[in-house]
């Protein structure tokens, strides 16, 4: 029966109508390739090739100003050296500490989004107010916070001394408080983006669920835990993934605010990579750092993707 059906199929393809259908499908296939071609070309040139070049350079002792003929293959020496480098280990540790910014930002943004969505007039005004830091120049933000956290004359320490704290922290100049200060600024900058995404997620939750909960006599807390948080889990997953990737890419705030100091207490992987490649001219060493950064980000993202099946409701 199947051979008979296949024979009928090939016979039909030889008819004028069949040939026309094949030509139409072939044209559609080529049109598809034509539309995705520019994207694939850009992906290959600007993403795949640089990754391959970085993998190769990570196995070399080279700097980009000496010329290609000076490339010297040294195998895995750069990777071995990295894990003996205290600044690299400190930068890696700081990156993982900075991950704490994400849940803090998510919780604050979710609470603000719920309040603004249900209990506040002029919602558009508050959206703009909270979103403004996110779209502001990070250089301007850093300069403002340098003034605010100035140890002797900054408004923050002036206020703390006025309420009786004689020895307030030196914030960005103090190795114990510099990273905490950066984290506080990062929360303030990111909160607007998280808020807007959560507000969009809240609009998609069916009102019927809340009406049914009201009929059952559910409290506000019960509705938050049993309806709002589970229904926003895809939004939270999106913010978690993009937040972690963004944390490992943080550079501009560190560069302008602290330059990795004091005593490398705020150095992160991308900033140390930049310093190694473009200031110390250790291109091979920086490339090895880039490969490790790629692997760490990839592993964390894959772990999140595997874990999301347990808590994300689609």
Structure explained in plain terms:
The chain has a two-stranded antiparallel ribbon. It is built from 15 helices and 2 strands. Helix 5 (101-119) packs across helix 12 and helix 12 runs antiparallel to helix 15 (283-311). It has helices at residues 2-13, 16-57, 77-82, 86-98, 101-119, 123-135, 138-148, 155-162, 178-203, 207-215, 220-231, 233-248, 252-257, 269-279, 283-311; strands spanning 60-61, 72-73. It is an all-alpha fold. Helix content is 74%, strand content 1%.
Which descriptors apply to this entry?
314 residues; mainly alpha; two-stranded antiparallel sheet; 2 strands; 74% helix; 1% strand
List the helices and strands and how they pair.
Blueprint (H helix, E strand, L loop, with lengths): L1 H12 L2 H42 L2 E2 L10 E2 L3 H6 L3 H13 L2 H19 L3 H13 L2 H11 L6 H8 L15 H26 L3 H9 L4 H12 L1 H16 L3 H6 L11 H11 L3 H29 L3
Antiparallel strand pairs: 1-2
Query: What count of helical segments does DSSP give?
Result: 15
Strand count: 2
Classify the secondary structure makeup into a structural class: mainly alpha
Overall mean pLDDT score? 89
Quick structural summary:
By secondary structure, the protein is mainly α.
């Amino acid at each position: 029966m199947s051979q008979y059906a296949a024979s009928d199929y090939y016979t039909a393809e030889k008819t004028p109508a069949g040939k026309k259908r094949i030509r139409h499908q072939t044209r559609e296939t080529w049109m598809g390739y034509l539309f995705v071609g520019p994207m694939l070309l850009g992906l290959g040139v600007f993403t795949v090739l640089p990754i391959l070049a970085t993998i190769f350079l990570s196995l070399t002792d080279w700097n980009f100003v000496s010329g290609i003929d000076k490339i010297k293959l040294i195998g895995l020496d750069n990777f071995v050296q990295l894990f003996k480098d205290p600044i690299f280990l400190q930068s890696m540790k700081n990156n993982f500490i900075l991950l704490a910014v994400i849940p803090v930002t998510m919780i604050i943004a979710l609470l603000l989004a719920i309040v603004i969505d249900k209990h506040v007039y002029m919602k558009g005004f508050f959206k703009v107010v909270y979103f403004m830091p996110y779209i502001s120049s990070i250089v301007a933000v850093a300069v403002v916070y340098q003034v605010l956290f100035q140890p002797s004359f900054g408004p923050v320490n002036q206020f703390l001394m006025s309420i009786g704290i004689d020895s307030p922290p030196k914030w960005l100049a103090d190795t114990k408080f510099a990273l905490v200060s950066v984290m506080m600024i990062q929360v303030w900058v990111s909160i607007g983006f998280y808020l807007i995404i959560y507000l969009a997620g809240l609009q998609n939750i069916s009102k019927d669920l809340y009406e049914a909960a009201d009929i059952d006599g559910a409290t506000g807390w019960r509705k938050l835990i049993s309806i709002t948080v589970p229904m926003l889990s895809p939004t939270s997953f999106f913010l978690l993934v993009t937040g972690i990737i963004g944390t490992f890419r943080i550079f501009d705030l560190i560069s302008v605010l602290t330059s990795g100091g004091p005593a490398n207490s705020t150095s992160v992987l991308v900033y140390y990579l930049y310093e190694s490649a473009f200031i110390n001219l250790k291109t091979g060493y920086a490339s090895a750092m880039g490969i490790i950064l790629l692997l760490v980000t990839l592993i964390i993202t894959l772990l999140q993707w595997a874990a999301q099946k347990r808590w994300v409701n689609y």
